[in-house]
Amino acid sequence: MQRNPGGDEPWIEHQPGAGVFRSRQFSLVSGIRLVQSDYQPLKALAESSRPAGNTPQLVLTFGLLGSSRFRADSGYEVLFQAGHLTVTSFQHSSGERLYRAGERVQQLRLVLNAESVQRYLGEDAAEHLLHQPQLKRHLFRLFGHATTAQLNEVQPDPLLREIQALNLLALHRHQLQPAAAQAKKLHPQDIDRLEQAHNWMQRHLAEPVTLATLALAAGLSEYQLKKGFQQHFGCTPGEKLLALRMQKAHRLLEEGYQVAQAAWQVGYQHPRNFSVAFQRYFGRPASQLRSA
Q1: 254 with 289: CB under 8 angstroms?
Q2: Three-state DSSP string of the chain
Q3: By the 8 A CB rule, do 79 and 67 touch?
């Protein structure tokens, strides 16, 4: 998306005098809304957010610039970061949108209601993605050049805008297929072994983990392990290992561990390497969380 994307809808200004706060939205075909936002607060901001209705929604957020977080009243947090697609669902989830002082944050969101999820992703996906009312993150992943091209080609014409939105949805539809539906192709014994590999990862986060070691622990070949992880978990073994390590490190830092201590607990011998990985994954320095 261009930094000041085109379109004929006016921007709605929020909180004048407190920085840049503007947004606009377009109602598209079959229950889809496209929402653009551009924020740059002068001071750190915690903006209250309450759902307008009580119907299930699936939200695809494309980070264009900067990073922000949403913290639900339950304490569950979701990160939104430039270059990443974050997919969330909720029916009712109140909380706060959190922005850092002086950082410009631009995002494009596709908001789908239950009907549009069923129409474009299928009934199985709708049941999988919208089955719980509380906020849930389904995907956090870098998007590629094809997505960037779509984001950089916004047209003011309403028809072309709808085509663009559907193209973005089509590019990422395969990533939203339910793991349970994909796992139907797996033998139950293979599923048990994949879960065994996942549990083994969790118990050995502080140790070096290789694909060969993980395959041996699960009783699968390396090929079966990689293919099985894609089918059952929707990611590679390496991506799953990184997610488990970062999630544990986040909890440790919140509990008061030093950055070096948290790094060691999740398999990083050098705190600098850990800090780089943490910043890349969460969009904020580990030291910032430690001092929060």
Answers
A1: yes
A2: CCCCCCCCCCCEECCCCCEEEEEEEEECHHHEEEEEEEEEECCCEEEEECCCCCCCEEEEEEEEECEEEEEECCCCEEEEECCEEEEEEECCCCEEEEECCCCCEEEEEEEEEHHHHHHHHCHHHHHHHCCCCCCEEEEEEECCHHHHHHHCCCCCCHHHHHHHHHHHHHHHHHHHCCHHHHHCCCCHHHHHHHHHHHHHHHHCCCCCCCHHHHHHHHCCCHHHHHHHHHHHCCCCHHHHHHHHHHHHHHHHHHCCCCHHHHHHHCCCCCHHHHHHHHHHHHCCCHHHHHHC
A3: yes
* Strand-pair partners of 107: 37, 63
86 touches 140 (CB < 8 A)? yes
Per-residue model confidence as pLDDT tens for the chain (292 residues)? 333 444 467 788 877 778 889 998 899 887 899 999 999 999 998 888 876 667 899 999 999 999 999 988 888 889 998 889 999 998 877 889 999 999 999 999 999 999 999 999 888 888 888 887 788 888 888 888 888 888 876 567 888 888 889 999 998 888 887 654 444 567 888 889 999 999 999 999 999 999 999 999 999 999 999 988 887 877 889 988 998 998 899 889 988 999 999 999 999 999 999 999 988 887 778 888 765 5
Retrieve residue 198's tokens.
Answer: 């996942």
| One-letter amino acid for residue 239 of the chain | E
- Distance from C-alpha of 67 to C-alpha of 64, rounded to nearest angstrom: 9
Taking residue 233's Cβ as centre, other Cβ atoms within 10 Å add up to: 19
Tokens 């789908």 sit on residue: 112
Sequence-distant (6+) residues with CB within 8 A of 179 are 128, 231, 232, 233, 234
Distance CA 129, CA 26 (A): 23
